[in-house]
Amino acid sequence: METRSAIFTGRIHTGREDEFFAIVESELLPVWRRMPGALAVRVYRPRRADPGSPPIVLLQEIDYASPEAVREAEASPIRAEGAPVVARLMTMFDGALHHIVSERIT
Which listed CATH number (3.20.20.450, 3.40.50.720, 3.40.50.300, 3.30.70.100) goes with 2-103? Predict the structure, then answer.
């Protein structure tokens, strides 16, 4: 099992938090659920963190059966549909977007 994660670190512009998460839920989540080979999609809005933790505002995880399935999803035109939405999110966000692919070991 492979999981591709997207981690938004930084901060959402003051007063735009509800708009940011509404776009994630209404526009990005449907794209993520249509990704080829996606077995499960999870999206998290962190509520608290230990002192000194990076400022994470959104975590997204999509599970795939294999590394090949991840590569297929990354190359998919469906993924490209989300790019303009992510670009719009970045205009209301100061920070960075990181992607990590992990292998489940337990």
Answer: 3.30.70.100
For residues 3-10, average pLDDT = 97
Helix, strand and coil in the chain, % to nearest 5: 35, 35, 30
Q: Average pLDDT for residues 92-106, to the nearest whole number?
A: 95
Tell me the CA distances in angstroms from 63 to 10, 30, 101, one per residue in order.
Answer: 25, 15, 10
pLDDT digits (tens, 9 = 90+) for 22-77: 999 999 999 999 999 999 999 999 999 999 999 999 999 999 999 999 999 999 99
Amino acid found at 59: L
- Please tell me the number of Cα atoms within 13 Å of 32 on its side-chain side: 22
Euclidean distance between CA atoms 69 and 104, whole angstroms: 14
Q: Is 84 helix (H, G, I), strand (E, B) or coil?
A: helix
Listed by start position, the domains of the chain span 2-103
pTM higher than 0.90: yes
